[in-house]
Amino acid sequence: MEELDGNGERGALHFGAVTPALDVLSAALDAYLVEVQAGGLGRVPDADLLAETRAFEVHRRRLAAADTVLISELERRNLPARLTSRSTSTLLQGLLRLSPSEAAHRVATAHATGPRSTLTGQPLLPLAPALAAAQITGTVSAEHTRVILTALNTLPSTTSTENLTAAEQHLTTAAATLRPREVALLGTRIAAHLDPDGTLTTATEHQRRRGFALHPNPDGSYTARGYLTPSCGALLLATLTPRAAPRPAATTTTGDGDNSGGTGSDNSGGWVSGSSVGGSEPDPRSHSQRLHDALQDLAGLAVRRNEHTTSGAPAQVIITMTATQLTTRQGLAATSTGQLLTIPDALNLADETTLHLLTTTETGAILNHHRTKRIATRAQTIALTARDKGCSFPGCDQPPEHCQRHHITPWADGGTTNLDNLTLLCGHHHRQFQPTGWTCHSRNGTPWWIPPPWIDPTQTPQQNHRIQRQ
């Protein structure tokens, strides 16, 4: 690779030459692919095919050893900084079109098994010498390596050098005959053996390991990963557990047909009046789904409480969609972070934020920039609390602190942020009233709810019993 000039010339990224050894390897691989793709493996006996599969896997694994040397050399030359990359991982993502997680794994592996040297240039053994040697011989796969490094990193920082070295050697030896999952279980047993009472896991160690990340997925969802300190985990669990309690999927009663909407309710705030549809059913959500919904409610509550201290939206959402999508509510919009959302979800996401809506042509040219404070002001929120006294859905008893401000006529459809077009809804009913067919209307300045025909064929308007009738 040619040297970069003092101005960070990027030509080396595109015009450098590979080493002769890599040329030889490339030519050999070309010859092998020509042979196997021409059907050369179709003529070998079964035993030879199995041997070929094993041997090829060894060569595949050995390439990882070269990978660690390449990454170590990139860092030795400080190329990531010279190319204005934030980190080695960022450089690899752009250079090799890797995902952030894959790039991070490769860098971590290189740090553990790549070559090292002193400040004067004297060579040093890798941090994990046994694992580095197993890479060179092709004994361990990339997955084995990740599992072993994860197991070593979970050992307390107070673990002695002798025990750390023994653990590395034991795990690497086991990887020669065990699958990655079995090696991970062995790592757990080693940790339990070295710290049977948990006494080595000090408060300082918890602080070292702490971390949390939300990784965006291509479908718009997120994957959460992290390590919580005991105090953080206890606080979070204590907050989520009561919010994640099971609730009936449907509670029915035989209403008397008046405008009161019946006289019964359940602890979840669910309410169905009119024709009975078969009584109560168990909550169909799994425990993890209930915890997810509780976390969503908690996040919404935090946003709203923060807003009350500033009388304004504490966060903003920037959404880009075409004018046609805004009109038809079809297709996918993009947030400023690049996540794709359905148009209804994108508009609903702005319920608790200041919304910047950019409408574009089909080619991406900006047609208009709409900015609005969709959030009710502090004074409006106080007035809503005094009027609705909590979730306005019939039969719900959730307090105002657990509620969101809901536009009766949707903001995206021209609904205003005025008291007669606002009502309080708990997170559950805010998510569920539309899918189940309920609609809300304002009458004399107060919210009234109309059930779907499958619940009440007469669709008699109902109102929460706490709201003062006007």
From TrEMBL:
Belongs to the Rv1128c/1148c/1588c/1702c/1945/3466 family. InterPro entries: DUF222, HNH, HNH_nuc. Residues 197-221, 245-290 are annotated as: Disordered. Residues 379-431 form the HNH nuclease domain. It comes from the Bacteria. This is DUF222 domain-containing protein. It holds the Pfam family HNH. Residues 245-257, 265-280 have a biased composition (Low complexity).
